[in-house]
Design brief:
The complex is a heterodimer of chains A (124) and B (135). Chain A starts with a strand and ends with a helix. In chain A, strands 1-2-3-4-5 form a five-stranded mixed beta sheet. Chain A contains four helices and five strands, in the order ββαβαβαβα. In chain A, helix 1 links the parallel strand 2 and strand 3. Helix content of chain A is 50%, strand content 18%. Chain A has a single domain, classed as Transcription Regulator spoIIAA. Chain A has 124 residues and is of the alpha/beta class. The radius of gyration of chain A is 14 Å and the shape is globular. Chain B has 135 residues and is α+β, with helices and mostly antiparallel strands. Chain B has four helices and five strands. A five-stranded antiparallel beta sheet of chain B has the order 1-2-3-5-4, with helices on one face. The longest helix of chain B is centred in the first third of the chain and has 22 residues. Chain B starts with a strand and ends with a strand. Classes of the chains: A alpha/beta (124), B alpha+beta (135). Chains A and B meet through helix 2 and helix 3 of A and helix 1, helix 2 and helix 4 of B.
Chain lengths: 124, 135
């Protein structure tokens, strides 16, 4: 099932609604990357509140997405990793050093807004 | 054993099915939400290993008991190419499948008991158990 992507310029929000297959994850990665270019986004938030498992494949896919977007100047925030999921990820040995995380969607957007302001300030 | 639940692993959607099935059984057996999540994550790695290396296989879920403590055993078996060096396969960061190389060692950390039996050309069986914590 594809993940709905919401445009909230200059940001994109992907709200994961249900458990994702590997193909769904790759689809999400590609869709977000393409859409972020098309809309000249500053940042994206992937809301994973509903995910009850984040395994090595999911992590690698999100990591790759963030790395590709960063090369394009776009920041990726993963929001809403559940406490039990966070514990399982650490036990499994998964780290996402390159990805910004946030407690929830709202906090993720707040981070991106603050970042956009900093970027604008530097430009003046 | 008549209490075994079998999940056939043939394609990606079976990874989700394995997760959902083990979570439901673990919940029935009294595992808390955190343990359910750790077990579901472990089975996700094992199911993906089956798909990636053997194309298909099966996972058996078996309730276990030891000294009055409830447990759940995952038996993930395939008739794939097998693992040449099982010690190396249990090393963090080692992968022949271009993954993160955390599948087997990570799964071991998520579970309490872990046993890997593999024979080249015959297949691989991982047997892993997690025990409910006494509260």
């Amino acid at each position: 099932m594809p993940v709905p992507i919401l445009a909230q310029p200059p940001y994109l929000i992907a709200s994961v609604q249900t458990a994702l297959t590997d193909a769904d994850l790759i689809g999400l990665q590609n869709d977000l990357f393409v859409e972020a270019q098309k809309r000249r986004c500053d940042g994206i938030v992937v809301d994973v509140t509903t995910l009850d498992v984040i395994d090595s494949f999911s992590t690698r896919t999100l990591q790759n997405l963030a790395a590709m977007l960063r090369l394009r100047g776009v920041e990726t925030v993963i929001a809403g990793i559940q406490p039990a999921v966070a514990m399982a990820m650490v036990e499994l040995g998964l780290h996402i050093p390159d990805i910004r995380t946030a407690l929830d969607l709202e906090a993720g957007l707040a981070y991106l807004r603050a970042r956009s302001h900093r970027t604008v300030d530097r430009g003046h | 054993m008549d209490t075994d639940t079998r999940v056939q692993i043939d394609d990606e959607s079976d990874i989700l099915k394995a997760r959902q099935t083990v979570r439901a059984i673990a919940a029935d057996l009294g595992f808390d939400l955190i343990s359910q999540t750790l077990i579901a994550t472990a089975i996700s790695e094992l199911a993906r290993n089956i798909l990636k290396y053997a194309r298909s296989g099966e996972i058996l879920l078996r309730p276990a008991a030891r000294n009055g403590v409830q447990g759940i055993t995952i038996i993930a078996a395939d008739k794939g190419p097998g693992i040449t060096d099982t010690a190396l396969a249990m090393t963090d960061g080692f992968s022949t499948g271009h993954g993160l190389g955390l599948g087997l060692p990570g799964t071991k950390r998520l579970m309490d008991d872990f046993d890997l039996v593999s024979e080249v050309g015959q297949g691989t069986t991982v047997t892993a158990t997690r025990w409910a914590r006494r509260t």
